[in-house]
Each structure stands twice: as C-alpha cells, then as structure tokens.
Design brief:
alpha+beta; 6 helices; Helix Hairpins; six-stranded antiparallel barrel; OB fold (Dihydrolipoamide Acetyltransferase, E2P)
C-alpha cells in the first residue's frame, strides 16, 4: 500500500513550473508565493491529523468479555492447623497424708481399671495414736452435746428465777414508791429533788455548826448559845430528812432496776436458751463432729485407687521414698485420643463444636483419620506476635487399629471441615455479584449478551462459589472483562 507523502505534490509542481517562475512579473511572483505557502500549510495539517487519528485508530484498546461454564463438582470449606495429641482427661493423684511409699503396683504406661490398687503409703500415725484421737474427739463431742442440754435446763431455771424476781422486785418497787410519795419534807425543801435537797441542807448544817462552834462550851443558860443550838438542831433535822428522802429514792431506783433486770431475764429465757448461747453451743458441737470425722479418717496405711479406666503417665516417687501430699501419680485417658489444635484467629468462624475434622499424623502420613471438634477455647493465645485459637478434636476410635495408642505430644496436620457439598453447581468466585442485603447475582450469557440473574450462593472458598438455586450446570456466566490492544500497521 502506498503511503501518503504530503510534500510530493509540491515538489512536483516546482519541478514542472521551474522554467516559468523566472519569467513572472513581480506581482505574479508574489501571488504565486502565497499559493505555495497555503499548499504547504494544508499538507502539514493533513499529516498532523493522520498522526493523531489514523495512527491511534490502528493501535486502539478493546475490552474482551471473559466467561466460564457452570459445572458440577465438589467444594469443601475448611480451616487448617497443626495439633498434638493430649489426654482426653487426666487427674493428678496424691495421698492425703505424708509418709513413706510401701507399695507401688504400676509403672508409667500401664493401663489400669477403675478400682485398681495403685500404691500404698505408711503414714506418720500409729494405730494407737489414731484410737486415742478418735476417743478424744468423741469425748469432746459428748461434752458439747451435754452443754447444749444444760443450756435448756438452765434456761428453764433462769425463767423460773426471773418470775420469782419479778414478783419480789415488783413488791419492793411498790413499797419504795409508797415511802417516797408519803415522806413529808420540811417546807423549805419542798420542790427540790433528793440530791438538791441533800446539798442544800448540808450547806445549811455546815453554817449552823460553824455559827455554834464558838459558843458550844458556854453555859447552857447563855441565850445566844441556846438560840444558835436551836438553829443547829433544826439544820441537823432538815439534813436528816433529806438523807432519809434520798435513801427512799435509792431504794426505789434499785428496786426498779432489779425489776427491769428480772423482766429482761424472763424475756431472754421464756423460750429457752438465748440465741448467742445456742450459737456458741452448736459451734462447739460442729467443731467436735469435724474433729471426730477427721480422726476417723486418719489411717496408718493409706491406699491409692484408680478412679476410672486409664493409663499411668507419670509417677514421682518409688517404694521406700518419703512423700508429701503433692502429686504422686498422673492417670490419663488415652483410649479416647484427642488433639489440641492451633489455628489462625481468622479461621474462628470456620471452627465450631460438632464440626468434622480430617487428621494426618506426621508419623502415619499415608493414613487420614477423622474426628469431631469437641471444644473451642474461648480465649485467644498470642505466640510470636501471632494470635491463634485452640480447638480440641476427638479422633474416631473406630478407625484406630486395635493395640495402637497415639502417645501424648504426637503431632498432626488437621483440617476442620466447616462445610462440604458434592454434586454442587459451581462457578468461579469472580462471577458472583454482591447486590447487598444478602442478595447475589451472576451475568448469564444469553444470545451472546450478558443478562443479570439473581442466584442463591452456598459455600464459598477463595476461588469457587456454590450456587444452590438460580443457575444450572452448563450455563455460561461472565467473570469480568479484560482489555486487549490491537495494532493496525499501514
């Protein structure tokens, strides 16, 4: 194809008309030059248009629609992690007493049955000491029970005594009140309380005695002495009256106090011993009963029995060694092998109790065992700045050959199956369009045109999605578009 050459025409013109230019007049020459300039400008504009449009058109980008065929297959959604064998359950066993191991009937790795005698220990107590401790505890309990019975007896006696005292003190109060009410005080003391009257008459008596003192040895016929003596005697009489009145008041106050005490005692004991007495007595009985129970539990020789079927996984002492009350033996359940599995925290929604699991032990790489998640640790652990979750998987015993035991600490790779579907309609995950509010759709190719269709999405993984309704296997769906560049050289 011949390429466009914008300056070839002008060159040819100059070549053909060259002999005529020399003969042009001045006016004709100027006109000719203008024509030539316009032709040059037109040629440059045409070349610029060709460079920016025709050339671009020959190198344009095109969008290509990518598609995929929905197919029938299997999809599995799972969380993968590493695990180690742990005991399904274990118990730290210890003797209740300090002593020396005298008998050991098992070794590490032995399987035992519930009730089997595992070991014996000679305690620090002799048979005589145990009998004495039991006897002392029984005596203390009897004494405490007797004290409680005596409380009820004493309570009845105290109630009767209180009734008698009420009667006695009620009479004393009545008599004392009568004496107080009917005792005549000198007119000068009327309106005064007993203490006030006593203080006043004492003051008057002291003045009268002081006034009489200078005349007490004078002749009795001395009129001044006789007058002062009369005043002294009157003051003494008034003082005696005040003292008598005070005595009556004292007797009344004491009688009233005794009567109040008698009534209080009656209220305290009318229904039996007081709450405080009963609490103290019952506490003594409880303490004595506990001491007796403890004494009866004391043994000269202690025995250790298996609480359930299991395997002995640890023993901390041998026959003849002295042992405290710390752990002596560990019994573990290895007949129900369990894996402690560590997974990334991002897999938390893929792990739940009841989910099935597939297990491959490093020691048995050619065998895949199955199991079930029995527990998920509610806490997140951090190791080397990585957050992990822990799940426990119980291995299906039916798959384990008889006689095979997985030792504690054995490592394995574990896949926890969160979901699995067979004969499912599957499409690439890129074909799914999220419409919001839990609705999804795909573009289905109909007559070479993409048509939006809502579908129900089931399981999904990083590359594939299950379609449970809205699409059939064999239909073509769009997975997006790609841009392609085509070059058209002329």
């Amino acid at each position: 194809m011949t390429k466009f050459q914008p300056f070839s025409f002008i060159t040819s013109v100059f070549a053909k008309k060259e002999f005529k230019i020399y003969k042009f007049t001045f006016k004709k020459s100027v006109f000719f030059v203008l024509i030539v300039c316009l032709l040059i400008a037109a040629g440059g504009s045409g070349y610029y248009f060709w460079r920016n449009n025709v050339a671009k058109a020959s190198n344009s980008e095109k969008s290509t629609l990518e598609t995929a065929v929905a197919y029938t297959g299997e999809i599995t959604v799972m969380a993968s992690g590493t695990g180690t064998v742990v005991a399904a359950k274990s118990i730290d066993m210890a003797f209740e007493y300090d002593g020396t191991v005298t008998e050991l009937n098992v070794a590490v790795g032995d399987k035992v049955k519930k009730g089997d005698l595992l070991a014996k220990l000679q305690t620090e107590y002799t048979e005589e000491e145990i009998k004495a401790a039991i006897a002392n505890a029984e005596l203390a309990l009897t004494q405490a029970q007797n004290e409680l019975e005596e409380l009820y007896i004493n309570a009845e006696s105290n109630k009767t005594s209180a009734l008698n005292n009420i009667s006695t003190y009620a009479k004393e109060v009545r008599d004392a009140q009568y004496n107080v009410d009917n005792y005549l005080m000198p007119s000068s003391l009327q309106g005064m309380d007993p203490i006030e009257a006593l203080d006043y008459t004492k003051e008057q008596l002291d003045k009268a005695r002081e006034a009489f003192e200078p005349y007490k040895f004078d002749a009795q016929e001395n009129s001044t002495r006789r007058k002062l003596l009369e005043q002294y005697n009157q003051a003494q009489s008034n003082y005696n009256s005040a003292v008598t009145r005070l005595q009556y008041q004292y007797i009344l106050d004491v009688a009233e106090a005794n009567l109040a005490k008698a009534r209080s005692d009656y209220e305290a004991y009318k229904d039996g011993p007081t709450e405080t007495e009963l609490a103290e007595a019952n506490q003594k009985i409880t303490s004595a009963e506990a001491d007796l129970a403890s004494a009866k539990e004391m043994v000269s020789v202690a025995s250790l029995y298996a609480p359930w079927d299991g395997t002995v996984t640890s023993i901390s002492a041998d026959v003849g060694e002295y042992l405290g009350t710390t752990t002596f033996l560990v019994l573990s359940d290895l007949d129900n092998p369990t894996l402690q599995v560590s997974l990334d925290e991002s897999d938390l929604e893929l792990v739940s109790v009841g989910y099935p699991a597939e297990i491959v032990f490093d020691a048995y790489p050619d065998v895949t065992y199955t199991g079930t998640v029995t527990a998920v640790d509610p806490t997140v652990a951090t190791t080397n700045n990585v957050n992990t979750i822990t799940a426990f998987v119980k291995i299906d015993k039916s798959q384990i050959p008889e006689g095979l035991t997985f030792p504690i600490g054995l490592s394995a790779s574990v896949d926890i199956i969160a979901g699995k579907a067979e004969n499912a309609v599957l499409v690439p995950i890129d074909a799914i369009r999220d419409l919001g509010d839990g609705e999804y759709a795909v573009f289905v190719m109909e007559n070479d045109e993409p048509v939006l269709r809502t579908v129900t999405v089931g399981l999904t993984d990083s590359t594939t999605a299950q379609i449970t309704s809205g699409l059939n296997a064999g239909e073509i769906v769009s997975t997006g578009t790609t841009k392609t560049t085509s070059k058209n050289n002329q």
